[in-house]
């Protein structure tokens, strides 16, 4: 897999729900070099890092890896119901799920092996196609299984999951328009406001016997001279902290972690710890 790893993508937006991103990934082959596989996972990490954590993510992919049966030590990201033993590619899937707080959905539902096997070719029967979602959204999925007899690609069988979303009624916030008093910081605005206010007060500084009227004159002059805001909330989706320096630091930390996972020497551990 390379930079064009995403084969299809859909984004669902609803005012009553967080955005949901659903995408599929291209097929990987076992002949791909380890360096290419690591590049793929690095690119997928970048895709995930670009999505706000509060938004749902569902990934469907042929990872050509076996996460294996059982989940000892990996209970936080997968269930017990995989197929056969884990291989290197399957470990990469599990490691990705841990990094991104995802869950391997297929493995949480107890099914007959026929409804867990996603790939059949001759005498080979295994599980290489997976659906992943954020761990926090796992409770919204009530079922996941292979549809026997249905194929989506050569030798690959269809995997489906049932996801139920609760539609929450959102309370509409009251729109409140505000006078732009901060415009008084500008000398020309401040001077114009003084002149207009003096005129409105009939040349007097204050009206001591009727402060409420005076206050309303001040407010009305402010609205006319300085203007008012629209009252709408400004939705700033800019992640100002997610700059190039932060991305580079995270990437170096991630590579150091991979290096330590593959060769657990004290030198590699120290390098990972210091980043």
TrEMBL record:
Gene3D superfamilies: Endonuclease/exonuclease/phosphatase. SUPFAM superfamilies: DNase I-like. Coiled coil: none annotated. It comes from the Eukaryota. This is Craniofacial development protein 2-like. It comes from Hemibagrus guttatus.
